[in-house]
Design goal:
The protein is an alpha+beta fold. The chain has 24 helices and 20 strands. Strand 1 and strand 2 form a beta hairpin. It starts with a helix and ends in a 12-residue tail after the last strand.
């Protein structure tokens, strides 16, 4: 009885403790003044620093403590920046606004176009479609007539008209017309995006209810088949030519031979050996018939169609080609990769095939959103004044003064004047050196309007997108910290010769030359020439004279082959070290050529003089002073803010509630 009551009490107690326990994320790890660092904030920052929460869980408490110290210092610096009024600093605000605008435009296109675009592309590329089409070209009739004809043909198809007959009668695509408009297999990112999108929105066996306009004309699209896509396969081939040894066509004998080879291959024969023995495809015969990996639409249609209908290890039926009879064996099938594996390729495909259209639609929407209004009277006014004036000539044109403040266009509540317009378009490569005319100005206003609309949207991103707001906050903190470091550390470092010399004297044992040699070299890629030069040296010819005439190492003739002092890390330096000053070596193999080296001098390991070490001393002095001043600054912050750190609470980091 007592035991059971005790158990109940324990259970109730644990429930009370659990229900009263504070939310772990609100546990305080450090505080200074009114500022607090909570466990939730710390976990978020630490996970971001290590790459993920999973990585963070593997780290020791000691690592967490070190990071908490650094993060507390960071937060105190930000508090100091706030008290110094950095938020109101015009220079810092301007830098932040400039960054926000520039990074915001890139962020917009990445988040609104590229990321959703490649995700959609990835899903679509899981499938391949076999598509037929009937194309009507508007260059023989008007655009309206072409569209009207396409709509009437779609109605005819709905009412039972024969697809093949309509294609044969009306289609302007003479390549696909003989096969009922078949354009074979496609997947997303392989042909014009408008056509692809319509095809992916059509059910197998159906005709898309609307004609699709592309740069080629109007298309009536019929989806024949939709199936899971195999990105690429590897296959081997055995080919038997129709012609016999006398170069006479003997297709019956060739067919009998390929059938016999197929039987051998299916009865556990080694396909590769059979290919080496029998195949008449000289390009693959030596490799056992291996074609390598290939994708759709990359080889003969009849071979490709057979190959993509085989499973790994299967041998095809006999295939008739223009070159003879063939059989294939699929040796590898490459599956569709994960999104992360395909991501970089998806970006390339998307930017090549879909980005431009998506971008144009996106910025058109933004221009409409922000009320883009083109001043239609300004272009004729400029053109009237600028006879044979190039873009660059605008700034010196006499008529500029009268028009520079005129409105080119309006967007949101802003008026963009002619000067601003020319300032923008004169920086674009496509406008440089061009004569000012109406089409160019219209294009320039359109481009400038796009840019203004994107910047307008970017300026409000931090209010609508938490991820971008976080990015901007990180950047703001970064420029605040940079200014603090400049004020408290970098600008306080002064380097005069006396201080550097004192620093050198205190640390001179750190600045040491290793053993070094000074040597010269005669180099040639020809062994006969290098031996000739060696014979000349043995006969008393001056080494420097020969080197300045004949050494083939680029840039060394004018230096008579002299490499100066160098440590003993290279083979040539080691070879020179074996010599006495003035001696030269026999020819030695050196990479793709040959060398003779002469020792000029040896310099045993020693301390560097101040002048020799000055550059290193300067760098070391800066590092030491930076650390000293940083430590002094942190000490002053600790004195000022009196931080309290609760290291014990770190035991709860990255553990579930």
């Amino acid at each position: 009885m007592f035991a059971r009551v005790s158990s109940v009490i324990l259970i109730v107690s644990s429930l009370i403790i659990t229900s009263c326990a504070p939310d772990q994320s609100k546990i305080v790890l450090a505080k200074f003044g009114e500022e607090k660092i909570t466990l939730g904030e710390f976990e978020e920052v630490y996970a971001k620093n290590t790459g993920s929460a999973e990585n963070a869980k593997k780290d020791s408490v000691e690592k967490l403590k070190n990071f908490l110290d650094l993060y507390t210092n960071f937060r105190m610096k930000l508090r100091d920046a706030s008290l110094r009024g950095f938020e109101q600093n015009q220079s810092l605000s301007a830098e932040l606004a400039d960054y926000k605008e520039k990074i915001g435009v890139s962020y917009l296109t990445e988040k609104k176009l590229v990321e959703p675009g490649i995700e959609k592309l990835y899903e679509q590329r899981k499938y391949e479609l076999r598509v037929s089409h009937l194309m009507i070209r508007p260059d023989t009739v008007s655009d309206e007539q072409a569209k009207a004809l396409a709509l009437s043909l779609i109605d005819s198809i709905k009412n039972g008209s024969d697809w093949n007959k309509l294609v044969n009668k009306y289609s302007a695509d003479h390549f696909s017309k003989p096969t009922g408009g078949d354009v074979y297999y496609i997947t997303a990112g392989t042909i014009v995006p408008e056509f692809e999108e319509a095809a992916f929105n059509t059910e197998p066996g159906q005709v898309n209810p609307e004609p699709v306009k592309t740069m080629y004309g109007y298309h009536i699209i019929k989806l024949t088949e939709k199936k899971e896509r195999v990105p690429s396969i590897r296959a081997s081939i055995i080919l038997i030519d129709f012609k016999n040894d006398s170069s006479k066509i003997d297709s019956a004998a060739a067919l009998a031979q390929i059938k016999d080879i197929k039987t051998q291959a299916e009865n556990n024969g080694d396909f590769a050996e059979l290919a080496r023995k029998y195949s008449e495809d000289l390009g693959t015969k030596a490799n056992g018939g291996d074609i390598g990996f290939f994708e759709r639409r990359s080889m003969l249609k009849e071979l490709e169609e057979a190959a993509f209908n085989l499973k790994k290890g299967q041998v095809s039926d006999v295939i008739t080609t223009n070159f003879g009879y063939a059989i294939l064996k699929v040796t590898e099938v490459k599956p569709y990769g994960t999104f992360e594996e395909e991501k970089e390729n998806l970006k390339k495909v998307y930017r090549k095939t879909r980005y431009d259209a998506a971008y144009a639609q996106f910025v058109a929407g933004l221009k409409e959103k922000y009320g883009f209004r083109f001043n239609t009277s300004i272009v004729p006014e400029i053109v009237k004044n600028c006879d044979s004036t190039k873009i660059e000539g605008y700034w010196k044109a006499e008529w500029r003064e009268n028009l520079k403040d005129s409105t080119a266009y309006r967007l949101a509540d802003q008026k963009v004047n002619v000067d601003s317009l020319f300032s923008y378009i004169s920086k674009l490569p496509e406008f440089k050196g061009k004569l000012i005319d109406e089409p160019l100005l219209n294009k320039g206003i359109d481009k400038s309007g796009e840019n203004s609309a994107l910047r307008q949207e970017a300026n409000s991103l931090d209010k609508t997108d938490p991820q971008f707001a976080s990015l901007m906050n990180d950047y703001k903190n970064g420029i605040f910290i940079f200014k603090l470091q400049d004020d408290e550390v970098w600008s306080k470092i002064t380097q005069d010769s006396l201080r550097l010399l004192q620093f050198y004297e205190q640390n001179k044992e750190k600045y040491v030359w290793p053993d070094r040699v000074k040597y010269s070299e005669i180099y040639s890629i020809s062994d006969s020439l290098i031996n000739y030069y060696y014979d000349q040296l043995v006969k008393g010819e001056n080494f420097d004279t020969l080197a300045s005439k004949y050494t083939e190492r680029p840039g060394f003739k004018q230096k008579a082959g002299n490499h100066g002092f160098t440590d003993l890390n290279s083979a040539l330096a080691k070879e020179a070290d074996k010599l006495n000053p003035g001696e030269f070596s026999k020819p030695i193999k050196n990479g793709s050529g040959y060398s003779i080296v002469k020792l000029v001098a040896k310099d045993p390991s020693r301390l560097k003089t101040f002048e020799e070490a000055k550059a290193e001393v300067s760098g070391s002095f800066q590092d030491a002073e930076s650390k000293r001043l940083e430590a002094e600054y942190i000490a002053s912050l600790k004195t000022r803010f009196s931080p309290t750190i609760y290291y014990d609470n770190l035991e709860k980091a990255f553990k579930s509630n």
